[in-house]
Amino acid sequence: MNKVDLVIIGGGPAGMGAAVAAYDAGVRDILVLERDHRLGGILEQCIHNGFGLHRFKEELTGPEYAWRFEKELHARGIAYRLNTMVLDITPDKVVTAMNSEEGVFQIQAGAVILAMGCRERPRGALNTAGTRPAGIYTAGTAQRYINIMGYMPGKKVVILGSGDIGLIMARRMTWEGAKVQMVLELMPYSGGLTRNIVQCLQDNNIPLLLSHTIVDIHGKDRVEGVTIAEVDERRQPKMETAQYVECDTILLSVGLLPENELSKKASVPLDPMTSGALVDQRRMTEVPGIFACGNVLHVHDLVDYVSEEAEIAGRGAAAYLGISGENYGAEDQAHITVKPAKGVRYTLPQRISAVEDTTVFFRVTDVHKAVKVVVKADGEVIQSRRRPRVAPGEMETVNLNAKTLADCTGKTLTIEIEEV
Amino acid sequence: MQQEIICTNCPMGCHVIVTLEGDQIVSITGNTCPRGEAYARAEVTDPKRTITTTVGIIGGGVLPVKSDRAVSKRRISEFMEKIHQVYAVRPVHIGDKLIEDLDGDGANLVATQNAE
User: Looking at chain A, which terminus has fewer C-beta neighbours within 10 angstroms, N or C?
Assistant: First the structure.
């Protein structure tokens, strides 16, 4: 069986970022496996701008952002295989993959980085009533049709869910001549970025109806319309508010789910809150030598943060392989558990297994103005910071230095939101 | 007349109120930093946006493109019509110009992906 020091599953922003960072930390024997016919992942269909503001201090489109990383791979001569689908990973890090040239093949990896990204929540997961006519797409599928294949999926559109891809597609379809009737959001707030609500909806006079949903889909062969209704505070439709809206296309932008089928095969334990792996501060899962980063680990708002996380995982894998000179032995691991508390949905990493400066990422459950982010160790406040505004759609962070963490060994850290 | 602008510079999303007398801005309030004022001023006078779209490639496929700087938001449909008449020829590389001076103000339409 072929042996490779580091196998990276996925050649999107996470996989490419991890590959470059691992190389720069000294790993030379790297192989990136990508199922599409080119590197870049989902960025290739995200042709709008706004990527890279944090990292490159300029607004790039998705393909341009991906190209910056692809060039880095080429410059280092990092190996990758395209059109290659990974079928299985064992806890011992045997990777089984296939492509049309080599057939099925196996690689014994020294370390594995999972970077498979995420998938859109499909219609089947929503339980919308009505018939099953043509014309219902996830927003990302419509994006692929228009931006990569060059087809317009419809002329009169209703979008369910105000996630960023839905908002981006509202503008995209409008600019291409479609009439976007409205965007419906079940929650009383949008999960999308403010700039997208302004530049995609307000710019094009597309109404955003908060606390609304689709209660029925009409049409036999093709969508002819939907019945929409307002929902109450328990998110149940108020049928007296029901009204008919004509459309031939419905786009769903109702959330993303990390794609962890391979992680499960490798017996990687998952966090039910993130739907991604449980990891330590270097993004190593609970299976030694298997790391995870990017949207397969938890869904990110900005690709800039994906790249940052990928670099942590890449360096972590180098340390695990004993290449970068950093110690990653089990004997000196300081086990600190990190848990979400009041007002916090999840934290990442979920455990800290060596005392070093660590940034903990977390997401809040609700929109708040003027709050304190409080970190406690076994119930005792160790850090507190004011934030002018927090929202579920925007990732928050707390920085914990090695000195603070040294006093927390063996304890449970909690992060919570306090109103001030 | 008053116009409410939601600032998009940062996640705060300040609701900035611009008060106008005719074409003249008489006051800008509601912003918490100077960037909010500058943004609201531009939004009221001549809002600008970067266009991102695709053009066909001769022989098949589509190529993502963008305006290499922001163009007048009010004229976007006019620019889209112009862009729809253009086709790219392989090979084309990131940054290659497809339309020079798209808006009469120096913005070019450029490729944002490579097609060999």
Answer: N
Nearest to B78 by CA among B99, B61, B103: B103
B81 located within any domain:
yes
Find the angle CA(A192)-CA(A197)-CA(A202) to the nearest 5 degrees: 165
Encoded amino acid at A279, one letter:
V
Residue with tokens 């949207």: A295
CA distances from B8 to A103, A368, B36 (A): 50, 18, 8
pLDDT in tens, chain A (420 residues): 899 999 999 999 999 999 999 999 999 999 999 999 999 999 999 999 989 988 998 889 999 999 999 999 999 999 999 999 999 999 999 999 999 999 999 999 999 999 999 999 886 666 777 777 999 999 999 999 999 999 999 999 999 999 899 999 999 999 999 999 999 999 998 878 888 898 999 999 999 999 999 999 999 999 999 999 999 999 999 999 999 999 999 999 988 999 999 999 999 999 999 999 999 999 999 999 999 999 999 999 889 999 999 999 999 999 999 887 666 655 456 689 999 999 999 999 999 987 789 999 999 998 888 899 999 999 999 999 999 888 887 889 999 998 899 889 889 999 999 988
Q: Which residues of B touch A47 (CB under 8 A)?
A: 52-54, 64, 66, 112-113
Residue range of the domain that includes A25: 1-121+255-328
Using DSSP's 3-state secondary structure scheme, residue A100 falls into: coil
Instruction: Compute the half-sphere exposure of residue B30: CA atoms within 13 Å on the CB side of its CA.
Output: 19
Query: Are the CB atoms for A41 and A148 separated by under 8 Å?
Result: no
b/e for B77-109, b at 16 or more Cβ within 10 A? eebeeebeeeebeeebebebebbeebbeeebbb
Within 8 A of A61 by CB-CB distance, chain B residues are 52, 64, 66, 112
State the residue range of the domain holding B71: 52-111
Distances, alpha carbon B89 to alpha carbons A145, A176, A243, B29, B56, in Å: 21, 22, 48, 50, 9
CA distances, A14 to each of A300, A389, A394 (Å): 11, 28, 19
Verify that A314 and A208 share a domain, yes or no.
no
Beta carbons of A199 and B8 less than 8 Å apart: yes
Q: Which CATH number is B72's domain given?
A: 3.10.530.10
Contacts of B51 in chain A (CB under 8 A): 175
